Amino acid sequence: PALDALIDQLDDRDEQVWFQSVTAIAKIGPAAEQAIQPLCETFTDRSVQKRYRAAWAVGRIGSAAIPVLRDCLTDSSTAQRAGAIEALGWMSDHAGTAVQLLAPMLKEERAEIRRMAVSSLGRLGASSHAALEPALSDKDSQVRFNALRIFAKSDTLPDNVANATKTLAQDTDPAVRAAALIALGRGLDDQSQLLE
Question: What is the DSSP letter of 140?
Fold first, then answer.
């Protein structure tokens, strides 16, 4: 009964009512499965905050949302795909499945989709690092930069990532070069490798 009332409030025009309803649904978590579809419909809303908050709530609902999100990832609407990518990034309890669904998004034609995929993969933690490696050679400098910022949070860079990062220290984009140097400074076990 309470969940039904909260879902009904997702149609409310008052943003505060909407935000409070979404927050309450997210707190309910997996038991709020019937809210998945109405929340996913918000992925196409004009409000960036509503789209973000809806994706967060869907992510908090968890694994029951995965089939719906899988469908959203193949939707012709960029907004639907973006919402699904965002939601999957909030599914750290189901990181393995989320990574499997997000990794192919790094091959999307639209740079904004690839950027979002990198950010969402980064929120999933170290389990996503292998999937993130291709982003280091992306043609979009913002994708490369975002991936480097995630790897910079690692205590240790695997050799293949370290080698790619050394190459990116010579990138044409100064922000990418700076992010590569930060990642190398933090992630190399042997600091003498910085001299190579």
Answer: S
